[in-house]
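stage 2 :: seqdesign
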């Protein structure tokens, strides 16, 4: 059995700033006949793939079983990948940066195209704030180490402000929504479907979204040993995920109806959210790597990671 030291796990947990401890399976030896997939309920493609059973059908002839493990957010999923409780997962662009800085042993295996419109800076419908520039000195909430952390840095920069010009409160999406409704924060930086839910349900107003500001790619990641030894399995997963993505891209309304009971959100909220993602997946490109390196360098500048990293190190050596 492989063990992770208490010191390293403590560092990893501190860097990812987990709000709540997530129960994890002990680190297991590599099992070529088991694929454990980490997913978040907000990940539409994987939620539909799980419900369809198609992946299990494709892998059954190879004698490979599939186990689905749900996580509340990307940072927790990355910790699961790091300690060996899952082999594969799908997260936004920022959590892998923080995880790599903490020594997580994963590799990039694919990504979803740009979705800048799927993250936004929100203010209450009756807020006097009309522009990003007016956030100077204001209280802004976000999930630490997430995609929107990077988005906030870049959207402030675009509007002549520094990260230090706002007071940042680190809150999970659920806690941030509560604080937003109570008026204890001035703005909320968040991603879909939470953005769409706030717009539809409480009339939140979008000050700016990430279109033209950030790429907001989403990434498929795999544990390095699994990716090295079972590339054939990962190929099947990516093919099946792409089929679900194409269904969503062509059928927002039907996909939203299927997802509503599983994600616990009204279909109209999900339809709006789905319209802001591309739902097409690609092999890792130089452009994607460059974008990730820019995030890593920015996170170093704002002291979110303790030392420089080379994103390219998280690729399989060919």
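stage 2 :: out
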């Amino acid at each position: 059995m492989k063990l992770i030291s208490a010191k390293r796990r403590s560092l990893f947990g501190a860097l990812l700033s987990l709000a709540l401890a997530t129960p994890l399976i002990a680190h297991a030896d590599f099992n070529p006949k088991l694929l454990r997939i980490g997913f978040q309920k907000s990940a539409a493609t994987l939620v539909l793939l799980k419900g369809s059973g198609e992946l299990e059908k494709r892998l059954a002839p190879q004698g490979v079983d599939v186990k689905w493990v749900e996580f509340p957010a990307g940072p927790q999923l990355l910790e699961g990948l790091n300690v060996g409780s899952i082999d594969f997962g799908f997260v936004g662009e920022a959590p892998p940066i923080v995880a790599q800085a903490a020594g997580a042993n994963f590799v990039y295996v694919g990504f979803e195209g740009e979705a800048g419109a799927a993250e936004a800076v929100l203010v209450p419908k009756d807020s006097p704030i009309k522009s990003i520039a007016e956030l100077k000195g204001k209280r802004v909430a976000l999930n630490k180490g997430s995609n929107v952390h990077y988005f906030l840095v870049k959207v402030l920069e675009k509007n002549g402000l520094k990260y230090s010009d706002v007071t940042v409160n680190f809150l999970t999406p659920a806690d941030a929504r509560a604080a937003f409704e109570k008026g204890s924060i001035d703005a909320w930086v968040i991603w879909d479907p939470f953005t769409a839910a706030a717009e539809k349900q409480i009339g939140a107003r979008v000050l700016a979204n990430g279109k033209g500001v950030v790429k907001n790619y989403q990434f498929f990641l795999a544990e390095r040993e699994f990716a090295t030894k079972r590339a054939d399995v990962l190929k099947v997963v990516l093919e099946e995920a792409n089929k679900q993505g194409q269904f969503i891209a062509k059928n927002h309304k039907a996909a939203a109806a299927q997802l509503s009971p599983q994600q616990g959100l009204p279909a109209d909220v999900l339809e709006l959210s789905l319209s802001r993602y591309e739902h097409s997946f690609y092999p890792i490109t130089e452009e994607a790597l460059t974008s990730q390196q820019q995030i890593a360098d920015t996170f170093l500048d704002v002291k979110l990671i303790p030392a420089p990293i080379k994103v390219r190190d998280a690729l399989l050596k060919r």
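stage 3 :: structure notes
- The first strand starts at residue 34 and ends at 40.
- The two ends are 27 Å apart (CA to CA).
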